[in-house]
């Protein structure tokens, strides 16, 4: 089980950067004009011009927290960091979940204003799946580590 979790976690090191460039939504002012695609990176760049503090917060939640958590879990899976770090790693995961909440709030507010048109895109689903997958890996990792420790102790006890 630990091997499968490790492989899934390593896959997230590829999936997260793809999700950063993938379209989260398409937005436009009027239905007759084309819609502009918004990605995590383009959203941060756009925010940086007017709201650098908010841009930094979104960058922390959307970029640093999920990839930091994934890298930290990789170190735990390979035995380079103690399993005691899982509490800290869980906190990083909660920060990444906050980003999905922020995006959902922005979409809800924009739709409620009815000024323009917003359509969710596949990148939002990819990013959400990656964060949820990372969350599931973090939940299952302690169980897998204890199962592996039990298997090793039983193997060492055999004559």
Topology of helices and strands:
Blueprint: H1 2-21, E1 23-28, E2 36-39, H2 40-50, H3 52-77, H4 86-113, E3 117-120, H5 122-157
Antiparallel strand pairs: 1-2, 1-3
Helix pairs in contact: 1-3, 1-5, 2-3, 3-4, 3-5, 4-5
Number of strands: 3
CA-to-CA gap between the ends? 26 Å
What fraction, in percent, of the residue positions are helical? over 70%
Nearest-angstrom radius of gyration?
A: 19 Å
- Class by alpha and beta content: mainly alpha
CATH second-level architecture? Up-down Bundle
Total domains: 1
* C-alpha geometry: elongated
| Helix and strand element order | HEEHHHEH
In the CATH scheme, the class would be Mainly Alpha
Strand content: 5-15%
Across the major sheet, the strand order is 2-1-3
Q: Kindly report the CATH topology.
A: Butyryl-CoA Dehydrogenase, subunit A, domain 3
Q: Mean pLDDT, rounded to whole units?
A: 83
Counted by DSSP, the helix tally is 5
Main sheet attributes: strand count, strand direction, barrel closure:
3 strands, antiparallel
Low-confidence stretches: none
Question: TL;DR of this structure?
Answer:
This protein is mainly α and 159 residues long. It has a single domain (2-145), classed as Butyryl-CoA Dehydrogenase, subunit A, domain 3.
Your description of this structure?
- The chain has helices at 2-21, 40-50, 52-77, 86-113, 122-157; strands at residues 23-28, 36-39, 117-120.
- With 159 residues, the chain is mainly alpha-helical.
- It has a single domain, classed as Butyryl-CoA Dehydrogenase, subunit A, domain 3, CATH 1.20.140.
- It has a 3-stranded antiparallel beta sheet.
- A hairpin with a 7-residue loop joins strand 1 and strand 2.
- Helix 3 (52-77) runs parallel beside helix 5 (122-157).
- 24% of the residues are buried.
């Amino acid at each position: 089980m630990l091997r499968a979790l490790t492989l899934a976690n390593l896959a997230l090191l590829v999936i997260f950067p793809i999700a950063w460039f993938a379209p989260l939504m398409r937005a436009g002012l009027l239905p007759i004009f084309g819609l502009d695609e918004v990605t995590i990176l383009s959203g941060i760049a756009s925010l940086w011009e007017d709201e650098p503090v908010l841009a930094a917060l979104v960058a922390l939640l959307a970029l640093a927290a999920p990839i930091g958590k994934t890298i930290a879990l990789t170190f735990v899976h390979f035995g380079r960091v103690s399993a005691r770090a899982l509490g800290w790693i869980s906190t990083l995961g909660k920060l990444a979940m906050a980003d999905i909440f922020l995006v959902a709030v922005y979409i809800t507010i924009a739709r409620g204003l009815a000024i323009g048109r917003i359509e969710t895109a596949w990148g939002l689903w990819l990013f959400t799946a990656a964060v949820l997958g990372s969350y599931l890996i973090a939940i299952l990792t302690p169980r897998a580590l204890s199962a592996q420790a039990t298997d090793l102790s039983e193997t060492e006890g055999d004559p």
